């Protein structure tokens, strides 16, 4: 049997695909509208608390938050869209008609699986090009309490590291390696647990194994005096990667950028297991949309007159939500180092792929 003959007729395939997509995106629109409204209720007060913020900043927040909500709840919408479409097909005896014409359960589901694969492809591109950038920008905006955003949104912001007993805070880091530049530097000089002085500087660059800062001044805690300083070298032995790779948010990076960061961390001898799991999940996450027609297929087969159609729909929803719980659990275990990265990202997908096939074969009769 060739690929074309595996599908129902062109008319039936387009009919099923359209029914599935319309319901999926209608449910997604409803979820986004409700969840964005609830989220805005909790964040609008914080946005307006910053002097000068108004409706434009609220709209900017909606523009940055909505892609995150879409990315999170698209698989849920696919699951519910699948169950609604298949339930209607079952109730109208259209599934029975297709099976009577000689189509197998997999052939009946083929148009939905193909449409779901298209949704998964669109989801990956959307996550990679839009959601990652929106997440990165929103995280930086939250760090400045919804004030003016840094000029370069690709830079690291609000980084803290420890240098011996001292703490170093940097408002913004641009570039990487020996070309990294620090802006808004604060060095909290401590003796044991006591704060001795605070050195602040406007700008810093790499200088040998340390950092040369200018526009510096030191506040002596004991004397209560501020002393201007000439350009001075600080943070001896602190590597550039300790600043540039200190706070990596996987959700705020595209697939290619995250893979590059993981390579940089490996070269610096830093642990990468959690980030590797997130990298694999950037593929398995969108692909979960392909699972939803398989898990929701329990609603398509069986006689609707038996009164068990609602029960079958609930079983389909339960399987889908159980997958999402398992996926989050496995990813959390991967972040803790309990699961290998590949297993953390792909084990739930492969497990529920087999469960979906088993349920489909069991309920087909």
TrEMBL record:
It is found in: Cell membrane. The keyword Cell wall biogenesis/degradation does not apply. The chain crosses the membrane at residues 20-38, 69-87, 108-126, 309-326, 338-361. It is a multi-pass membrane protein. InterPro entries: LptG, LptG/LptF_permease. GO terms for biological process: lipopolysaccharide transport; transmembrane transport. It comes from the Bacteria. Pfam families: LptF_LptG. GO terms for cellular component: ATP-binding cassette (ABC) transporter complex. Keywords: Cell membrane, Membrane, Transmembrane, Transmembrane helix. Its main location: membrane. This is LPS export ABC transporter permease LptG. The gene is lptG.
């Amino acid at each position: 049997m060739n690929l074309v003959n595996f599908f129902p007729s062109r008319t039936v395939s387009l009919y099923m695909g359209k029914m599935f997509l319309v319901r999926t995106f209608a449910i997604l629109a409803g979820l986004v509208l409700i969840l964005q409204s609830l989220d805005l209720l909790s964040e609008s007060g914080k946005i307006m608390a910053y002097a000068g913020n108004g409706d434009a900043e609220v709209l900017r927040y909606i523009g940055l938050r909505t892609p995150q909500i879409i990315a999170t709840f698209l698989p849920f919408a696919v699951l519910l869209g699948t169950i609604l479409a298949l339930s209607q097909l079952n109730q109208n005896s259209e599934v029975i008609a297709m099976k009577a014409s000689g189509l197998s359960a997999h052939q009946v589901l083929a148009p939905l699986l193909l449409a779901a694969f298209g949704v998964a492809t669109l989801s990956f591109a959307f996550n990679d090009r839009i959601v990652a950038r929106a997440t990165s920008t929103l995280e930086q905006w939250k760090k400045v309490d919804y004030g003016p955003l840094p000029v370069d949104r690709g830079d690291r912001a609000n980084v803290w590291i420890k240098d011996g007993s001292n703490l170093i805070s940097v408002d913004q880091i641009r570039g990487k390696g020996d070309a990294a530049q620090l802006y808004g530097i604060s060095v909290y000089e401590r003796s044991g647990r006591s704060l001795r002085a605070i050195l602040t500087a406007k700008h810093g660059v790499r200088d040998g194994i340390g950092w040369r800062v200018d526009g510096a001044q030191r506040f002596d805690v004991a004397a209560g005096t501020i002393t201007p300083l000439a350009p001075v070298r600080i943070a001896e032995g602190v590597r550039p990667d300790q600043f540039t790779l200190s706070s990596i948010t996987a959700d705020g990076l595209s697939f290619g950028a995250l893979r590059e960061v993981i390579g940089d961390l490996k070269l610096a001898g830093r642990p990468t297991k959690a980030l590797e799991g997130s990298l694999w999940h950037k593929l398995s996450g969108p692909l979960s949309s392909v699972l939803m027609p398989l898990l929701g297929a329990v609603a398509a087969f069986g006689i609707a007159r038996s009164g068990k159609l609602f029960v079958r729909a609930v079983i389909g929803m339960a399987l889908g939500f159980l997958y999402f719980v398992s996926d989050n659990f496995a990813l959390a275990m991967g972040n803790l180092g309990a699961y290998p990265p590949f297993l953390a990202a792909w084990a739930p997908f492969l497990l529920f792929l087999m469960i979906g096939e088993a349920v489909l074969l069991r309920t087909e009769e």
